[in-house]
Write a structure and sequence with these properties.
about 110 residues; alpha+beta; Barwin-like endoglucanases; two-stranded antiparallel sheet; 2 helices; 7 strands; globular
Length: about 110
């Protein structure tokens, strides 16, 4: 195959016309925060923070945001997306493998 999941994450050319580097947020939550589709937002956890483009969509449930993992890599000298590992607290890891548990990390979101 010409493309695999790693290629999608590492080569931005495969994502032309798509929005893989966004934070998906429910319309109700976005409205309450004054965030519109395409706005930049800050996501803050106890481990770190990131600035990311908001994608207002019903594909996120009220009260949660979704950021795809596997991004935040440097390609051509430019960072594409957010590395969610940097938002995962060290205590929020699998107890045997020590891999970050990316789901259900409490966070604060605000318009940038």
């Amino acid at each position: 195959m010409e493309m695999v999941a790693n290629t999608i994450m590492r080569d931005p050319a495969w994502n032309v016309g798509r929005r893989p580097y966004t934070m998906r947020i429910h319309p109700k939550d976005a409205e309450e925060m004054g965030i519109r589709d395409g706005d930049l937002a800050f996501v803050e956890t106890e481990a770190g923070s990131a600035k990311i483009e908001a994608e207002v969509t019903d594909s996120s449930h009220p009260g949660q945001v979704v950021i795809s993992h596997g991004f935040g890599l440097v390609h051509g000298g430019e960072i594409h997306g957010v590395n969610v590992n940097q938002l995962a607290p060290t205590k929020n890891r699998d107890r045997l493998a020590a891999t970050p548990l990316h789901r259900y990390i409490p966070c604060r979101v605000r318009k940038a």
